[in-house]
Amino acid sequence: MNLALQAAMAEAGETAESLAAQTGVDPKTAARWISPGRIPQPRRRAKVAALLGRDVGDLWPDVLRRREPQWLREWVDWEREAVALRWFEHTWIPGLLQTEAYARATLAGEMLASSDVDELVASRLDRQAILRRDRPPMFVAAVFEGVLYQSAYGNRELMREQVTHLAACAALPALQVLVVPKDVGMYPGLGGGFIIAELPGGEYVAHADSQARAEIVTGAEEVATLSRRWERIRGECLSRAQSLDLIRKAAESWT
User: Fold this and answer.
1) Is 144 left (phi over 0), alpha (psi -120 to 50) or beta?
2) Is residue 106 classed exposed, middle or buried when 0-12, 13-18 and 19+ CB atoms within 10 A define those classes?
3) pLDDT tens-digit map of 212-234
């Protein structure tokens, strides 16, 4: 529990309901801010801190110790608040489902200092904590089958560990991993990976990658376009049971 926030609210005579009314969120969202690791979006952090007469760092010290790069922080804030995440990947295992070794392999060849790689990997692993919460977001990932058989610099043990971990994740009740079979031919996923986050108030925001940079998408029309693309991609996927069976077979192939 965030004792600093709880104490500041009591001292200022504020409740989750009163903060919700003043920051434009649902009272349930404001109540979750007291839970460990639940950090409001930047603009709402600043508003809450001002209402309580405290510094943001006093209420959410983790904000000052964040490991992810500056360009990723806005998305991580959305990700933490999301009640549902829909994630499509054509090239990688989704970041929230990666092992440490696999995460490091995705950064190989990027001309980064070892300390930078350490920070990026630590950030990615830290983000996975949202899937271990008492009430995790609904998480549905769709991955292209070829990703399961894509060698990581010839390291078979690394891939065995990663695909076995993916199978374990896919068996969790609140998490689905669906596979787009390799014989599907042309399909909307060829345009690249993206994530759609559903927020507590019914809003949606998306994250789309490109070779040059990652982009946060908040425009209603653009998010709707990605939502339609998601539905078309999901329509090409195997069922949940078929996908899990295929993932397990892929893990065995790396032994």
Assistant:
1) beta
2) middle
3) 677 899 999 999 999 999 999 99
